[in-house]
Design brief:
By secondary structure, the chain is mainly β. It has one domain: Jelly Rolls. The chain is built from 1 helix and 12 strands. The strands form 3 sheets. Strands 1-9-6-11-4 form a 5-stranded antiparallel β-sheet, with no helix packed on it. The model has no long low-confidence stretch (mean pLDDT about 95). The structure holds dTDP-4-keto-6-deoxyglucose. DTDP-4-keto-6-deoxyglucose binds near residues 36, 38, 59 and 100.
């Protein structure tokens, strides 16, 4: 799975003098049904989150407030995304290693997920991930 398959997706933005509105419709704006929503908030300065991959889970990550970086890896290629607006998000398919850092003060990371929480779905060891993702084609790169 190449991190180029991670992609930024623009969402509808309804401009309104009372405040703007953005919405996400499962399978229409993002390529999966949503089974779970969670969010990271009160992230202290300098903290990083993630540091794992998912076997079956697909996600759509939105900076609902503030900004942060999402670093994605497939075991060979690496791609960094900066999320700083609530009217677009990052689609992350299965088997992509992700790390999130550079959280701005007060940022909120909203995640729409294709599956219920299942610790068995996580690969939290990078070597194990790389072995599964790249197998014998390992070229020694990240
Ligand atoms: C991801 C990034 C962006 C639950 O019990 N239910 C849940 O739905 C979630 C997401 C987590 N947890 C528990 C599991 C751990 O004991 O919350 C604790 C912290 O989870 P974790 O260390 O996985 O948190 P992050 O921020 O490193 O990763 C989370 C998601 O787990 C992960 O899917 O991609 O946010």
């Amino acid at each position: 799975m190449n991190p180029s398959l991670c992609k930024l997706i623009d969402l509808p933005k309804i401009l309104d003098h009372r405040g703007n509105l953005t919405f996400v419709e499962a399978t229409k704006h993002i390529p999966f049904e949503i089974k779970r929503i969670y969010y990271l908030y009160d992230v202290p300065g300098g903290a990083s989150r993630g540091g794992h991959a998912h076997r079956n889970l697909q996600q759509f990550v939105i900076a609902a407030n503030g900004s942060f970086d999402v670093i994605t890896k497939d075991g060979t290629n690496k791609k960094k995304f900066f999320l700083n607006r609530s009217y677009y998000g990052l689609y992350i398919p299965t088997m992509i290693w992700r790390e999130m850092d550079n959280f701005s003060s007060g940022s909120v990371c909203l995640v729409l997920a294709s599956e219920f929480y299942d610790e068995e779905d996580y690969i939290r060891d990078y070597r194990e991930f790389k072995k599964l993702a790249v197998g014998n084609k390992d070229d020694g790169q990240d």
